[in-house]
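Need a sequence for this fold. Nothing fancy.
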């Protein structure tokens, strides 16, 4: 009987000490692209199906985004006021509260997290 209890006890301890997996949740999006954003879309990395996101922040503004997903890695596409698209690839939305979309003068795109 002891032979069965000890392994089960070890398994129970290991399972209870394992960290909970993070999910993507609500976040604040900050627009530092230098242009107004007309619309936002999101897709899981590696997929082709874009889904709309709420909010269309003007340049320098921030907007609360209601979002929930069990994945972490997403692409975010911002349609700018001039009709061009800026796609931010591989955005990590797990365990973040603020996501800042940046665009440099040369057109380079990057994301900052808080």
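Here you go.
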């Amino acid at each position: 009987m002891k032979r069965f209890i000890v392994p089960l006890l070890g398994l129970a301890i290991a399972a209870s000490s394992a960290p909970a997996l993070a999910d993507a949740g609500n976040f604040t999006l900050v627009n530092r692209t230098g242009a107004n954003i007309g619309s936002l879309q999101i897709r899981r990395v590696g997929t082709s199906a874009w889904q709309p996101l709420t909010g269309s922040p003007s340049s320098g503004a921030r907007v609360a985004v209601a979002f929930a997903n069990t994945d972490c890695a997403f692409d975010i596409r911002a349609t700018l006021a001039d009709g061009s698209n800026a796609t931010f690839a591989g955005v990590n939305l797990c365990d973040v509260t603020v996501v800042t979309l940046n665009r440099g003068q040369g057109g380079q795109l990057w994301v900052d997290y808080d």
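For context: The helical segments are 2-17.
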